TrEMBL record:
This is Interferon-induced protein with tetratricopeptide repeats 5. The keyword Coiled coil applies. PANTHER family: INTERFERON-INDUCED PROTEIN WITH TETRATRICOPEPTIDE REPEATS, INTERFERON-INDUCED PROTEIN WITH TETRATRICOPEPTIDE REPEATS 5. It comes from the Eukaryota. TPR repeats lie at residues 213-246, 247-280. Keywords: Coiled coil, Immunity, Innate immunity, Repeat, TPR repeat. InterPro entries: TPR-like_helical_dom_sf, TPR_rpt. Belongs to the IFIT family. SUPFAM superfamilies: TPR-like. GO terms for biological process: defense response to virus; innate immune response. Residues 56-83 form a coiled coil. PROSITE patterns: TPR. GO terms for cellular component: cytosol. It comes from Scyliorhinus torazame (Cloudy catshark).
Length: 463
């Protein structure tokens, strides 16, 4: 009876245990590795990382370790936010209460509820055990950016709520920019033009803190998308000069140089990053992409080198790609893009059986996000078209990816290749049945989604 009553109180808290309710599609081991790196290297967000580590450890049954994580978070908050400790500690105390509940130490869990009750009495609009203040909204925003893409929209709203009361807070402004960036990356519809909301938000961060080097490199990447390359390069160089050993700066600067075609510079930075965090799946994937760029360049080049030398270089680059993509997936089992990149290299290496088997195995994974499933269908379609020379099988893959109702870059890719296939077939034969079938399915899916949106609006109006 006492445990049930305590559970009712715990469900009223604002903390990780009430924010992230669906954990089946979350790669906890991969998340844990990222958080371990973060607490070592990112002092600014150490408390947030320790809180998230506590949540992950508790889910994995490591409750004693979770309590240690929370003690570290509390220590960081006391040292860095002494003047606003009560505002900052609300989420941590909520996590304490939940971990002790899972350990069966109900008295300890209740003691943290009592602490929260005393703190919340300071805030006029607070409920008994929590206060929805900017610090809580901000912490919630950061926590929702970690587990999966489906939480990004809510994370953005949290930062917006935090900024309503504290418009000049650098942390919440940067959090809002990060959420915008993540959403843009997954939506498949990046902003273009002069008035990019993401670019403006990153400029806002730099207006508040001109030395925010992570905002500099992220703005540089966005400006690179908008072909504003001179300013972008200037920002990257400035960020590297100010923070040459800051891992996030190194990572994003390397991505900038790779996309600019300066692959050797990118590899130099990524190698430096790997010395700092040797178990980073992100860095291994980026290194693999650099070697892939060199491989594609070699294949396309009219090199005057001997055939044997070119073959040796190709084999070496293929092996480098495979090694780093495979390592990225080994370190983070939810990193589907790394495994897809590995499959693409197998296809380039003419190992079609292995590439096909990878696509099939990935689609049979028990827990897989919708955007990952769309990515697999998209890449499998490209494989069928370019390597197996089967337009019909490619179209089947693209259709399966497009029919998954989830806005993503991969879904837009599936749509693009379907429309391109239909257009190409109609150029050859204006009465092509398959082309009209493809266009019909696209319109049918679009129409169904429009009707669903109308119904959603009608229902919300009735409420």
């Amino acid at each position: 009876m006492q445990k049930n009553l305590l559970r009712v109180k715990l469900n009223q808290l604002q903390c990780h245990f009430t924010w992230i309710l669906q954990t089946e599609n979350i790669d906890l081991d991969g998340m844990k590795q990222i958080l371990h790196d973060s607490v070592k290297l990112d002092e600014k967000y150490q408390a947030s990382s320790y809180n998230q580590l506590a949540f992950v450890n508790c889910l994995q049954g490591n409750c004693e370790e979770a309590i240690q994580n929370l003690k570290e978070a509390e220590k960081v908050l006391r040292e860095n936010h002494e003047d606003e400790f009560d505002k900052r500690i609300i989420v941590t105390y909520g996590n304490y209460a939940w971990v002790y509940y899972h350990m069966g130490q109900l008295t300890d869990a209740q003691s943290y509820l009592d602490k929260l009750e005393r703190i919340c009495q300071q805030f006029p609009d607070a409920s008994r055990y929590t206060a929805m203040i900017p610090e809580v909204y901000g912490e919630k925003g950061w926590s929702l950016l970690s587990p999966a893409a489906k939480y990004y929209q809510e994370a953005m709203k949290c930062f917006q709520r935090a900024l309503e009361e504290d418009t000049d807070n650098v942390e919440w402004n940067f959090g809002f920019a990060t959420a915008l960036m993540r959403l843009e990356g997954y939506s498949g519809k990046p902003e273009n033009g002069k008035f990019s909301e993401l670019a403006m938000q990153l400029r806002r961060v730099l207006e508040l803190d001109s030395g925010h080097t992570e905002a500099m490199v992220l703005l540089a990447l966005k400006l690179q998308d908008l072909n504003e390359n001179e300013e972008a390069l200037r920002l990257v160089e400035q960020a590297l000069q100010k923070s040459p050993d800051q891992l996030h700066v190194i990572r994003y600067a390397a991505k900038f140089y790779r996309r600019a075609g300066k692959v050797e510079k990118a590899l130099e930075l990524l190698g430096k990053g790997l010395e700092i965090t040797p178990n980073s799946a992100f860095l291994h994937h980026q290194i693999g992409l650099c070697y892939k760029s060199k491989l594609i360049q070699l294949i396309k080049s009219d090199s005057k080198s001997s055939h044997n030398l070119k073959l040796q270089q190709k084999v070496s680059l293929i092996n480098q790609c495979k090694h780093h993509f495979d390592e990225a997936f080994r370190l983070k089992r939810s990193f589907i893009m790394a495994k897809l990149a590995f499959a693409e290299i197998c296809a380039i290496d003419k190992d079609h059986d292995k590439a096909g088997a990878i696509y099939k195995d990935l689609l049979n994974l028990e827990y897989i996000t919708l955007e990952n499933k769309q990515e697999i269908y998209l890449e499998a379609g490209k494989f069928e078209f370019h390597h197996k020379k089967s337009e019909s099988n490619a179209s089947k893959c693209y259709l399966e990816g497009f029919k998954i109702k989830h806005a993503s870059k991969a879904r837009e890719g599936c749509r693009y290749y379907l429309e391109k296939t239909a257009e190409n077939r109609l150029c050859k034969n204006r009465r092509d049945i398959q082309a009209f079938c493809i266009r019909g399915i696209i319109h049918m899916v679009d129409g169904q989604e429009c009707f669903e949106k109308v119904l959603e609006i009608e229902l919300s109006n009735e409420e």
